[in-house]
Design a protein that fits this description.
Order of helices and strands: EEEHEEHEHHHEHEHEEHEHEEHEH
Number of strands: 14
Helix content: 25-40%
CATH class of the largest domain: Alpha Beta
Number of helices: 11
Structural class: alpha/beta
C-alpha cells in the first residue's frame, strides 16, 4: 500500500533522514521505533506530505505522491504527538470543525461524528468543553479527529504519552479494533516497547536517520539469539556495583530499572561467579538472579546503545 524508497532529508549540515526504506501492506500495523533524534518524526512528516524530501520517493499503491500529495491526504489520518484540539470547544464542536475542514458533507458528517464518538468512548461527554477533559480523554478525541474522514492509513505518533494506564489500555484496544474490524493500516510510534509488542506485526528500528533493523517481532529478537539476559535484583543499587559490572568482559549491554540491573551476555559464558564476586566487593546484597531470553527492548538497547525512552 505504501512504500518509502531511499528517503532523505537534509537540514543545512544535518542529515535528519538518510536513505530510509520501508513499506506497509494493506491492513498491517507497523511499529517505527527509535531514540529521540533518530529521524522518526521527520520521516512521518515526509510521509504525511508536510515536509518535502531532499531526495527519494514515497509511493502510494505504486504511484509517487511527491508531486501529488493530495492523493495521500485523502486516505491519511494523523494522530500527532501534541494535542491538536480547540480547548474552548466541546468534543462535538471540535469534530464538527475538523469535519468541515475535511469537507465532509453536512448530512454525512453528523453520522460520522456519532460513529467516532462511539469508537473513542466519549458519546456521553460530547457536549463538555475539551479543557475540562483528562489527558486521556483529550488523547482519545485527538484520535477521533483523525478518524473522521474514514482514512485507509493512519499514522499515530506516540498517542499515549503522559496518560493514565486505563486510558492507555483503552487507546491500545481501540487501535487493535480499528485494525482488525476495519482493516485499517497503522504506522505506530511509541516510547513504550510493550505497546509495540501488543499492536505491531512488523517493526522498523531507526537511529541516526537510518533504518538499522527491520522485520517481524521474532526476527528482530533473533538478532540476540546467541545472547541471554540476566536480570539481577538487588536490595539497594550502588554505583560501585554498576561500575564494576561495566568492566567485566563479555557484557554486551547494561540497563537499569531500579532495583533491577539487566545485563546481556553470550549464552556460552558463565558469568554468575563474577557477578557474585562484584556484589561482594561492592557490599551489594543480591536478592535474585533470573536468566531470560532477550526481549525486544534488549535488542533495541543492543542496536542503539540507548533505551527507548532516552
Amino acid at each position: 500500500m505504501l512504500e518509502v524508497v531511499e528517503l532523505t532529508k537534509h537540514f543545512k549540515n544535518n542529515k535528519a533522514v538518510n536513505g530510509v526504506n520501508l513499506y506497509l501492506e494493506k491492513g498491517e500495523t507497523v511499529g517505527l521505533l527509535g531514540p529521540n533524534g533518530a529521524g522518526k518524526s521527520t520521516t512521518i512528516s515526509m510521509i504525511s506530505s508536510l515536509v518535502k524530501p531532499s531526495s527519494g520517493d514515497i509511493r502510494l499503491r505504486n504511484e509517487s505522491i511527491i508531486k501529488t500529495p493530495e492523493k495521500m491526504r485523502k486516505i491519511l489520518g494523523v494522530v500527532p504527538q501534541e494535542i491538536a484540539l480547540y480547548m474552548e470547544l466541546s468534543a462535538r464542536e471540535n469534530l464538527e470543525l475538523f469535519g468541515k475542514i475535511y469537507k465532509i458533507p453536512s448530512k454525512e458528517l453528523k453520522n460520522r461524528i456519532d460513529e467516532v464518538l462511539e469508537i473513542i468512548g466519549l458519546k456521553d461527554r460530547q457536549k463538555e468543553l475539551v479543557k475540562t477533559y483528562s489527558g486521556g480523554m483529550q488523547r482519545r478525541l485527538n484520535i477521533g479527529v483523525a478518524l473522521l474522514h474514514e482514512p485507509e492509513l493512519i499514522i499515530m505518533d506516540e498517542p499515549t504519552v503522559g496518560i493514565d494506564p486505563q486510558s492507555r489500555n483503552y487507546i491500545l484496544e481501540t487501535v487493535k479494533r480499528l485494525n482488525t474490524e476495519k482493516n485499517m493500516t497503522v504506522l505506530y510510534t511509541s516510547h513504550y516497547m510493550e505497546e509495540v509488542e501488543f499492536l505491531c506485526d512488523r517493526i522498523y528500528i531507526m537511529d541516526h536517520g537510518k533504518v538499522i533493523a527491520s522485520g517481524e517481532k521474532e526476527e528482530i529478537k533473533s538478532i540476540l539469539s546467541a545472547e541471554q539476559t540476566i536480570a539481577i535484583k538487588v536490595e539497594m543499587l550502588k554505583g560501585e556495583f554498576v561500575e564494576s559490572l561495566k568492566i567485566l568482559p563479555n557484557i554486551r549491554n547494561i540497563s537499569i530499572k531500579e532495583p533491577i540491573v539487566s545485563i546481556i551476555v553470550p549464552k556460552k559464558i558463565n558469568i554468575l561467579k563474577d557477578l557474585f564476586k562484584v556484589a561482594e566487593e561492592s557490599n551489594t546484597n543480591i536478592i535474585s538472579v533470573n536468566i531470560e531470553t532477550p526481549s525486544l527492548e534488549d535488542v533495541f538497547l543492543h542496536l542503539t546503545g540507548r533505551q527507548l525512552r532516552n
